Amino acid sequence: MELDERKKRILKAVIKNYLDTGEPVGSRTISKYADFSLSPATIRNEMADLEEMGYLFSPHTSAGRVPTDAGYRLYVDEMLEEKSEELSRKSESLDRMQDIMDKRVDRIEEVLKDMAKMLAANTQYTSVVSMPQANRNRLKFAQITALDAGKLLCTIVLEGNIVKNHMINLNRELNQETLLKLNLLLNNTLNGLTLQEINFDMASQMASQAGEHAELATEILNSIVAAIGSEDGIEIFTSGATNIFRYPELSDSNRASELISTLEEKKLLTNLMSEDLGENTTGIKVYIGEETSVNSMKDCSVITATYEFEDGVYGKVGVIGPKRMDYEKVLSALKDVTGSLDKKFTKD
Amino acid sequence: MELDERKKRILKAVIKNYLDTGEPVGSRTISKYADFSLSPATIRNEMADLEEMGYLFSPHTSAGRVPTDAGYRLYVDEMLEEKSEELSRKSESLDRMQDIMDKRVDRIEEVLKDMAKMLAANTQYTSVVSMPQANRNRLKFAQITALDAGKLLCTIVLEGNIVKNHMINLNRELNQETLLKLNLLLNNTLNGLTLQEINFDMASQMASQAGEHAELATEILNSIVAAIGSEDGIEIFTSGATNIFRYPELSDSNRASELISTLEEKKLLTNLMSEDLGENTTGIKVYIGEETSVNSMKDCSVITATYEFEDGVYGKVGVIGPKRMDYEKVLSALKDVTGSLDKKFTKD
DNA sequence: AATTAGCACTCCAATGTGTTGAGTGCTAAC
DNA sequence: GTTAGCACTCAACACATTGGAGTGCTAATT
Q1: A45 and B CB contact within 8 Å
Q2: What share of chain A has pLDDT > 70, as a percent?
């Protein structure tokens, strides 16, 4: 059977209607729909075909039709219309971000959380944001300071002024001179490298240059790399979890509980939030139902977008909602937001 | 009417039963209760009295009785029995914390989050933990580093090895010598002071000592204080939010949504989590229903305990559950945990 | 050949109608 | 003071009834 133009139009009409109402839509409804001049009976035939083709299904004999995942897929891939941008709101949020960024380096976190909150509020769905992955970022500055006896504070600054702190416990004390020497060595050897490069090549090279402190230098280096490279997975923030209660198909006790649980745990989100990172940078991805590969989200759709924090360093923003979410609205919201993140983060 | 011993025993029996089952308890149930040798009829009379006195009420004519907030209050204030400690579980959890603490000193946040998770898992309720309030914490080490032209990175370490970073944008560049001088000055003047003390007294004193750099020093100092002193409220972590779905009286859509919302927002929790901080340090507090002063928690009870992070620096741990929570279990869990936190945090 | 009116059929959802049982309050007896 | 006995109440559950929305099929229409 062929998916001709009329079938497409009907499918689109059904889906749009279902997005709005959440109720199965019947042939009469579609028939009344503006520019169709077909009787319910004809529509019924077409809808039966669409069901046979796997794009629609009826929950039961005497109900209307509901899109299948395949139906949504087709809709998302071929039937979306660009929504016109809302300029006013956008610039306001940008200003606020600008402000925060300037003042508090160690607070990207706050900015992102804020972002998530805004996104959730705008879309009425749940939002997810991941911290930009630091381990491809270049090292700009490293410094070791003695705090207490045998306790070193290591401060590292990456391009884009991401600051990381790490405590190193040594089993011996260092004098001022050694410290100075180590600091020089650190900066000379490591500056401009990504953490991955450091991880692979540097250890031996640095050790050889360190002379008498070779062993110490290696120890410190390892400690740094271990601490910073191995963040236990990416950091993820969510916001608007309770928005799921707006959608009856998600809000029954069990589903809601599982869903909020995965949002709280965050572990299950890491796959979605790191897929294709850096590959196609402007990539917006839509996951429908099972495509999320997360069981508790099989009644949800997820849309993710990559933002570029700085050259080569990416993070992701996502929106989680019911499968009948307003794809167009969410897509445009994500475009706005990633656009804005790009602009802000790479500006200075 | 007087609350004689028998009435108390009956009230206690009713409450205990209700804590277990969540169902209104009837006179027959109590009559069968071990060491009462009274007929249901007698119990009924007593229960009617207890209702009149405001400790019990019936949801409807032919249901059993349920404790009122006043009933719970009485129970909590006068009828709790210390639970014999469960040593096995306790030591197990302690071991785990020990483990975490040793590995990552600079990650109080992680430890606390883990704590919250454990507490939620053990109690099957929702847990809340607040970061120790830093602004009473003493400064241990301060350092300014030039990053880019006119951009200074300020690193501050507080007692307990809390590290804070802050970026300062200057309109001029500093040479190495000035920087060194400033660093010395900073450490000499500020070490050992709390952020509050710095806020109030130091600005002028430091300025006078800075000589030619007086203006610069003031600028930097202000910038530091502004950035660190003005944390927007206390930081709060929650865990086990979805445990509320275990308790039917909390898990209907509306209630659950509101509740999880307040957990997500965290703002409404700040009052509960900062009340009496530092006053009576071992204070464990029980809030029942309306006593929480949070509307969405009017069907919940909250128990909070203060932990001492370091001399004079406190944080709070809390458990949020249905009013019919197992008060004894939660109290002992909190005692365990705050005991352990004390021990761990002040150890080195 | 495609469209449509007509009709029988299906099934959910809403509503109403017992029925059951747990629990009460009251009274009178112990 | 305690208790047995009894009439009464009321939520909860199980069924039956109804109404309506929507379908699929067939036969008539264009």
Answers
A1: no
A2: 81
